[in-house]
Amino acid sequence: MQDLLDTSATQLAARIRRRELSPLDLLDAHIERIERVNPSINAMVHDRFEQARQEAIQAEVRLTNAPRAAPLPPLLGVPCTIQELIGVAGMPQTCGSVYRWDRIAQSDASVVARLKAAGAIVLGVTNVAEASLWLETNNLIYGRTVNPWDPQHTVGGGSGGECALIAAGGSPFGLGAGLTSSVRIPASFCGVVAHQPTAHLVPATGLWGLGASGLLDSGPIARRVEDLMPLLRIIAGPDGRDATVCNRPLLEPEHVDFSTVTVFPLTEHAGLRISPVMKEAVNRSVEVMVALGASVCTKRLPVLSETAALWGAMITDRMSGDAAEMLGDGESIPVLREALRFAFGRANHTTSALAMAMVDALRRLLPSRVTERRALAIQLRAELEEALGDHGVILHPPYTRPAPRHRGTLVTPSDFVLSALFSALGMPATSLPVGFDVSGLPLGVQVIARRGADHLTLAVAAGLERELGGWVRAQPTL
Fold this sequence. Notes:
The chain is an alpha/beta fold. Helices cover 36% and strands 13% of the residues. The strands form two sheets. An eleven-stranded mixed beta sheet has the order 1-3-2-6-8-7-12-13-11-9-10, with helices on both faces. Strand 12 and strand 13 (442-448) form a beta hairpin. Helix 2 runs antiparallel to helix 3 (49-65).
């Protein structure tokens, strides 16, 4: 059954439809894997194994009773996992906040309901960063998730638990969300594939509070790139409740002719120190694309300066509150008092989340340049999209280095903008693993394109995956 832990969701679904694979056997293989690795990495925080087994039995009955040529749901019998801040009926939805410790989702988020309607079986929910505020999946409810490649290193924030579990083979695919660095940084740190969709493509209904403000970006995470577009097609489109979502057509990645693709390598970003190994990952990916027929444009892209400030302006423009309110589940926490509690070992918050709240409080005392910077960000997006056109992609590191040690992200607090800025601009991006560094940590590259060109980033990512090997199952220290 080990091959089931290394197979894409697309291939697993096909084997089920051909009656070559039992949904219950597939489910049990993944439950066994979760029970084996989760004590080491602390990725899944609440399971629904018994309900999932009943759903797998129902899927087998449906297969047995269906004529061979009958249409079946595309994910019938395929297990998955969901990040905890995305609502799954009957599961906790705390977002790692002590103020929400007893919150249970009363209904499925739209994206979860769509996966279930497509036949997917939810195994459980995975760990999150406190209030989705930092690049560490750590909170005072569930504790810290560790990297399945090295427990001394972080999995990133937002979707860190989801990416860690998929990396270790515990789930074929899942959904994640985060505060605009979203799924790509955790995917890069853990060595899995993930796609950040074009803005307003996927509804946020049923995501933790910030989803309604358009601040939480959700997207699919998987073992293989081939899974991302089928999953995106399932979760995308208006749901009648999220008024920001548009009905944008999705093209097929398979129709992309690499001879028409122009690659823009980007290994520098706003003066941030990008490590040589991440630059080399981008350069190696560029060489692969050239070998596949793409051309390279060495013309400098519009200057990406003050990106942290531009990102902050785009976020602030959409936020009704501040970081203190995010931590307090809508009611602002007393930041100074919480800092004193922290100093005496009585903290209600993690170090990184409280630091973010303090920085945000100080920032709001300074003169605001939000309107000016938002205008600059919109101008930057227009210039980038003009340079890229319909067939251009940026190859760029998702982060400045491979997964840092725990708390190491606090030393370089602006580095997340390598991914976050493009999310704030609404541009699609696909992150994929392209090898390992000398210490065995995954290396990632992200492929970015103009808004609406999700198929293009996915096509390029698939080409890179074929040539560079893609996902490898992590074997956490047990």
